Amino acid sequence: MRIGGRWILGSLVALVVMATLAAWAADEPPARSKADVEAIERIIRDYLLRHPQVIMDALQAWERRQEADKAARVKETIARRRAELSEDPSSPVGGNESGDVTVVEFFDYRCPHCRTASRMLAELVAEDGGIRVVYKEFPILGPDSLFAARAALAARLQGRYDAFHRALMAERTLNRARVIELAASLGLDTARLEKDMQSPDIESAIRRTHALAEALSVNATPAFIVGDELRLGALDRETLRALVARARAQKNK
């Protein structure tokens, strides 16, 4: 890893020096002279020049701690906001509504990785009859994404969310006109659809999803929550199958 290599190296050396000096200076008397400080600085500098791997080891250890802390925070957030994630009545549900494992998916209809994830998830749901899917409309790719998300939630009021969701996900190029065309092709009342899209309830549902994503540090799509695990990106079917298996095993303990 070479992200700003010289800057990182210099910063780490400075941090090591400052931390060492602070601890050393915090000792009880005698007071430290300028010569004493300069001597210890030379010792630290010489040691790091002879053993540069120490710096990389420290950086890697710091990164591991950061990742572990982040994972712990995410698990705590999932546990604390479980009802919002899994039971919000404004979030459409697919698969087996009485399934024993819930997969929560954050997605954007204009995200190509979400299209891949949608196909993979549909295949897994067909294979495993115990999966319940909660769809979190998370439009982050511009006005056309927001329009599609509003339309999908409005289609739910006509009992056509599932079919419309699949149709939107199958489109490589999605804009407002195409959204309405797809709705009409599925027999939706498009005049009612466009009126329902302006509902404060739909606006509120999308805002709540954005707030959940922010709390979980989700800033891209797709993102999946299975059990107490959060995964980002278009997972392959084997990975998602393993997540479901772990969640099921944990639940059955």
Topology (SSEs and partners):
Elements: H1 5-25, H2 34-50, H3 53-80, H4 82-86, E1 93-95, E2 101-107, H5 112-127, E3 131-137, H6 143-156, H7 161-169, H8 176-185, H9 190-196, H10 200-215, E4 223-226, E5 229-232, H11 237-251
Parallel strand pairs: 2-3
Antiparallel strand pairs: 1-3, 2-4, 4-5
Helix pairs in contact: 1-2, 6-7, 6-8
How do you describe this structure in short?
The protein is an alpha+beta fold and 253 residues long. Helix content is 62%, strand content 10%.
> First CA to last CA: what distance?
40 Å
Helical content, roughly?
Answer: 55-70%
Oligomer: single chain
What is the overall silhouette?
elongated
Mean pLDDT: 86
Q: Which strand order spans the largest sheet, edge to edge or round the barrel?
A: 1-3-2-4-5
Low-confidence stretches: 1-7
- Briefly note the CATH topology name of the largest domain: Glutaredoxin
Structural class: alpha+beta
Strand percentage lies at: 5-15%
The SSE order reads HHHHEEHEHHHHHEEH
CATH class of the largest domain: Alpha Beta
Relevant CATH superfamily of the largest domain: Glutaredoxin
Please describe the biggest sheet, giving its number of strands, its sense, and whether it closes into a barrel: 5 strands, mixed
CATH architecture of the largest domain: 3-Layer(aba) Sandwich
Q: Give the domain tally.
A: 2
Q: Rg to the nearest angstrom? A: 26 Å
Tally of DSSP helical segments: 11
For the secondary structure, the number of strands is 5
